[in-house]
Amino acid sequence: MLETVAALSGLIAMVWLIIGVYIASRYYPNYDHAKQFCSELGASGSPTEKLSPRINNYPLGLLFCLFGGYIISLEWSSYLVNLSGLCIVIHGIGTWVAGYFPMDADPYTTTPTRECEIHSWAGFIMLLALLVAPILISVTPTGEVISVAFRLFSFLSAVLACVFLFMLARAFKQKRSAGLHQRVSYGIQLLWLSVFSMLLL
After folding, report:
1. What domain range includes position 84?
2. d(C-alpha 106, C-alpha 86), whole Å
3. For residues 27 and 88, what is the distance between their CA atoms, to the nearest angstrom?
4. What is the value of pTM for the model shown?
């Protein structure tokens, strides 16, 4: 039973995030998913500063670590697959850190607080870790679980996530639709994680 939950934790994480962000946003008056970052739900001084990390960051971090640890523990996993699992664990740890240290209420502030700087670095490490993970799988030798199709899907997922990250950076500078591009980019990464999760069942 525990092994099945661990294998499914990648898929569960995506579903959990969607529900968690939706619930938190209901307690944040006039929250705009297209314009605002997910992290703004847990920003310092926000109406959901305490709620958001409790229902999002902390349980999600556990799910990511559980899934990454499960991948590492697989008997057939190769060195590259193990590294991919480690990246997912790092993503989970970063999720905890980003939840514990809130970002500033104004994402465009030129003088961020120490907590916001830690949050930003944690977010960067999270992002990088979940970009490297599918790239590692894309160059893993083909096997019973890691098929050519999944290797190609992993590579395309990383490329598409990068494309929307570039669009996110541009939207952030223009101060419009940053939240939308963040969600699409991260959604692609979580979709890859979900497919990987289902393949391991």
Report:
1. 2-199
2. 33
3. 30
4. 0.95
Structure tokens at 116: 């916001």
Total number of domains constituting the chain: 1
55 to 6, 30, 83: CA distances (angstroms): 19, 20, 28
Q: Round to whole Å and give the CA distance between 56 and 50.
A: 10
Cβ atoms of 70 and 9 within 8 Å: the answer is yes
Whether pLDDT at 24 is above 90? yes
For residue 16, give both structure tokens: 């959990």
Query: Which of 86, 66, 74 minimizes the C-alpha distance to 9?
Result: 66
CA atoms within 13 A on the CB side of 74: 27
Gap between the terminal Cα atoms of the chain: 12
Cα–Cα distances in angstroms (integers) from residue 59 to residues 34, 47, 64, 80, 98, in the given order? 24, 20, 9, 27, 13
The secondary structure of 26-37 as a DSSP string is HTSTT--TTTS-
- Per-residue model confidence (pLDDT) at position 144: 81
Tens of pLDDT, residue by residue over 101-158, are 999 999 999 999 999 999 999 999 999 999 999 999 999 998 888 999 999 999 999 9
